[in-house]
Write a structure and sequence with these properties.
It holds the Pfam family Response_reg. Keywords: Phosphoprotein. This is Response regulatory domain-containing protein. This protein is α/β, with parallel strands linked by helices. The chain has a domain of about 70 residues: Rossmann fold (3-Layer(aba) Sandwich). It has five helices and five strands. Strands 2-1-3-4-5 form a five-stranded parallel sheet, sandwiched between helices. Strand 3, helix 3 and strand 4 form a beta-alpha-beta unit. Helix 2 runs parallel beside helix 3. The chain starts with 8 loop residues before the first strand and ends with a helix.
Length: about 130
């Protein structure tokens, strides 16, 4: 994908799978987002200390600090943050959906994800569709 001249904002992507993280980064940069990748929850929190994102994408099953705990810490660290926190996951149970809401998550985006699905759902969750 060619770089878009648009500046749509910043997205933090916390995903432990390097291939998936790179895929999401490529797709989102291709439509004009600045993407800040992190391989785990701790990396996400470090980025959040210096970036005010337009959205945060979190995998649930990351080693060390999982997506749930990362989301909980984000909400405690930045209660003023109004961007959506979106879990990008293959988990489909109602327990996971409930837990995501309980820790402050806003939406779920289920894997596998196509570029079209990623972009359309992200823009929808951000209120930009």
């Amino acid at each position: 994908m060619a770089k878009s001249p648009l500046n749509r904002g910043s997205i933090i992507v916390a995903e432990d799978d390097a291939e998936m993280r790179g895929y999401i980064k490529l797709v989102l940069e291709g439509i004009g987002f600045s993407v800040f990748p992190a391989s785990d929850g701790h990396g996400c929190l470090r980025i959040l200390a210096s970036v005010t994102p337009s959205a945060i994408l979190l995998d649930i099953g990351m080693p060390g600090l999982d997506g749930y705990e990362t989301c909980r810490r984000i909400r405690n660290m930045r209660p003023d943050l109004s961007c959506p926190i979106i879990f990008v996951t293959a988990r489909r149970s109602m327990e996971d959906v409930h837990m995501a809401k309980q820790v402050g998550g806003d939406h779920f985006l289920l894997k596998p994800i196509t570029p079209e699905k990623l972009v359309s759902r992200l823009l929808h969750f951000m209120g930009r569709d």
